[in-house]
Amino acid sequence: DTILCMGAGISMANGFSRVIKDKPIFAYIGDSTFFHTGLTALANAVYHKANINVLVLDNRMTAMTGFQPNPTEVIDIADVAKSLGVEYVVEFDPYDFENGKKTFEEALQHEGPTVIIMRKICANEWWRQQRRSGQKIEVYHIDPETCIACGTCIVQYQCPAIYWSVDTNSKGKKYSIIDPSMCTGCSVCSQICPVKAISKEVDIDE
Ligand code: SF4
Ligand code: SF4
């Protein structure tokens, strides 16, 4: 993995694609930065038929600098990518794990640049909106007796709401726990747990 600066992902991926031929190359960029510095690099990728996959993390705002609005309000990222000549452009809900997996598998079969737009409102902003409107937030819970401590939810997915137990379950094994004050109810952990130990549990009023 390489990180340089805001918006450099597509440019770097272009360069990597000239020398790395045996591995897939992914460039990450936010929705604001796509308009800030991504367009020129994407045009270059199309021109050079660079075999790269551009992942646009479209959370509908410029969350990093204070939740300002951005051009996605009036300009569609998929339309822009297509107009630049990208042949494979797809949008999906990043909380839909199986669909996301299928999308990535398809994109990796494509020759030339692809643009994959993961569109979902910023979790912080969504949470704020829920609280302001008095909506309940449905959080998830892990059954300590079913959890096999495989680490998929903590080590691989790395949801910050999940942590290891100090105690052990009846089998003497540690298990993972969800902090309900941090869970946004996205459901992804329940989709990826191999033993279905995670389920929707309680609603909390904020
Ligand atoms: S539902 Fe989403 S936010 Fe809540 S613990 Fe699972 S992955 Fe984390
Ligand atoms: S993915 Fe499931 S089994 Fe694995 S640590 Fe998380 S809750 Fe436990």
Give a quick precis of the structure.
The chain contains seven helices and eight strands; from the N terminus they run H-E-H-E-H-E-H-E-H-E-H-E-E-H-E. By secondary structure, it is α/β, with parallel strands linked by helices. The chain folds into two domains: 113 residues, Rossmann fold, CATH 3.40.50; 70 residues, Alpha-Beta Plaits, CATH 3.30.70.
Task: Write a structural description.
By secondary structure, the protein is α/β, with parallel strands linked by helices. Helix 1 runs parallel beside helix 2. The strands form three sheets. A four-stranded parallel sheet has the order 1-2-4-3, with helices on both faces. Strands 5-8 form a two-stranded antiparallel sheet. Strands 6-7 form a two-stranded antiparallel ribbon. The protein contains seven helices and eight strands; from the N terminus they run H-E-H-E-H-E-H-E-H-E-H-E-E-H-E. The protein is globular. Helix content is 33%, strand content 20%. The mean pLDDT is 93. The chain has two domains: 9-121, Rossmann fold; 135-204, Alpha-Beta Plaits, CATH 3.30.70. Bound molecules: iron/sulfur cluster (2 copies). One iron/sulfur cluster (SF4) binds next to helix 6.
